[in-house]
């Protein structure tokens, strides 16, 4: 077995150990003069700067009254939802639970939507549930507002996902036959203001078939969306904004779009075979096209649902 020995030359002084060296250096660094507040020249200090109030705030700051009203509405709706959908409430079917939750939330102007749905469960969340994805390279970071490169700012996203955690989780025991759907857990704590204006959400800004046909006919005749909105308000329609009618105008009142009747007549005049059915109100409820070109054109119509029927024959 080989041994490694250290030979100390008695002529040389032994070096300090690691601990001694560390203690000596630490003592040298901390060996400074003690100073007190009496040593400072307080006369040379400048006066505090006055607050600059020449620049107005660029965004609205909620007043105390507005904050209180928001908090009160959040508390009121939380209590209303907990009373209507307590943990343990049962439903006959999953669709029944979905429709009841959506109907009640729509009445209170807090839209809930389906987040996850499977055979034994369904989870419905507030429209403002979750957060937006993290910013990629070249995009502005949502949390800090800082970007890696100079890019255009994102549009206002405060009306979308705000990190709200409100949800309802309904489940049934798939192993047992005939068991009802039960609310297992829920949370109705919202982290955003509750708008009382039903026009705040797109789901509430829809027209029935009769009012939509009237709006389309007016705008095709040259009426502007603003004037059309005023006419609809005389009929009791108060859930729209001008942008909604502008979108309808873009979709139905341009040269490359036509209504169903004119569309069918144009196909028949071109030699296409078209069959259709009407209801009691003389509105087309079913159309059958033979030619692929007719099917392709029908896909552009919002009131049309295309079903491809394939006939197979065994030989």
Write the layout of secondary structure elements.
Elements: H1 18-30, H2 64-84, E1 90-91, H3 94-107, E2 112-117, E3 121-126, E4 167-171, E5 181-187, H4 209-220, H5 225-233, H6 242-252, H7 260-269, E6 274-278, E7 284-289, H8 292-298
Antiparallel strand pairs: 1-5, 2-3, 3-4, 4-5, 6-7
Helix pairs in contact: 4-5, 4-6, 5-6
Region (Disordered): 14-38
InterPro entries: FHY3/FAR1 (IPR031052)
Biased composition (Basic and acidic residues): 14-26
Protein described:
This protein is an alpha+beta fold. It folds into three domains: 65-142 and 159-199, no CATH class; 205-252; 259-315, no CATH class. The chain has helices at residues 18-30, 64-84, 94-107, 209-220, 225-233, 242-252, 260-269, 292-298, and strands at residues 90-91, 112-117, 121-126, 167-171, 181-187, 274-278, 284-289. It has a five-stranded antiparallel beta sheet, covered by helices on one side. Strands 6-7 form a two-stranded antiparallel ribbon. The longest helix has 21 residues, at 64-84. The chain is extended. It starts with 17 loop residues before the first helix and ends in a 17-residue tail after the last helix.
Counting DSSP E segments of at least 2 residues, the number of strands comes to 7
End-to-end C-alpha gap? 92 Å
Q: What's the tally of helices?
A: 8
- Decide which structural class fits the backbone: alpha+beta
Question: In percent, how helical is the residue content?
Answer: 25-40%
Walk across the major sheet and give the strand order.
1-5-4-3-2
| Largest β sheet strand count, sense and barrel closure | 5 strands, antiparallel
Rg from alpha-carbon coordinates = 36 Å
How would you spell out the order of helices and strands? HHEHEEEEHHHHEEH
Which spans have pLDDT < 50 for at least 5 consecutive residues?
Answer: 1-15, 48-69, 141-153
Which strand-content bin applies to the residues? 5-15%
- Name the average pLDDT: 68
Q: What gross morphology would you assign?
A: extended
Region (Disordered): 14-38
GO biological process, one term: regulation of DNA-templated transcription
Protein name: FAR1 domain-containing protein
Biased composition (Basic and acidic residues): 14-26
């Amino acid at each position: 077995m080989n041994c490694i020995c250290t030979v100390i030359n008695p002529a040389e002084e032994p070096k300090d150990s690691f601990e001694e060296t560390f203690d000596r250096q630490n003592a040298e660094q901390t060996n400074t003069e003690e100073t007190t507040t009496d040593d400072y020249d307080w006369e040379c200090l400048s006066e505090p700067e006055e607050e600059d109030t020449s620049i107005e705030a660029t965004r609205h700051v909620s007043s105390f009254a507005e904050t209180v009203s928001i908090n009160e509405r959040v508390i009121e709706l939380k209590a209303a939802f907990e009373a209507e959908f307590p943990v343990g409430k049962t439903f006959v079917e999953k669709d029944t639970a979905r429709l009841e939750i959506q109907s009640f939330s729509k009445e209170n102007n807090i839209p809930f939507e389906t987040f996850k749905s499977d055979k034994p469960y369904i989870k419905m969340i507030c429209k403002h549930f979750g957060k937006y994805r993290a910013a990629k390279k070249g995009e502005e970071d949502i949390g800090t507002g800082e970007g890696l490169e100079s890019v255009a700012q994102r549009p206002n996203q405060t009306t979308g996902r705000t990190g709200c955690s409100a949800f309802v989780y309904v489940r049934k025991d798939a192993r047992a036959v005939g068991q009802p759907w039960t609310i297992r857990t829920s949370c109705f704590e919202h982290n955003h203001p509750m708008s009382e204006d039903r026009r705040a959400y797109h789901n509430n800004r829809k027209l029935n078939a009769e009012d939509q046909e009237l709006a389309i006919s007016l705008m095709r005749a040259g009426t502007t969306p603003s004037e059309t909105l005023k006419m609809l308000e005389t009929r009791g329609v108060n859930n729209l904004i001008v942008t909604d009618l502008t979108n309808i105008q873009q979709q139905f009142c341009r040269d490359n779009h036509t209504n169903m009747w004119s569309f069918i007549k144009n196909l028949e005049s071109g030699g296409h075979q078209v069959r259709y059915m009407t209801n009691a109100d003389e509105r087309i409820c079913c159309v059958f096209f033979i030619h692929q070109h007719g099917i392709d054109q029908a896909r552009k119509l919002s009131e049309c649902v295309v079903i491809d029927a394939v006939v197979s024959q065994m030989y």
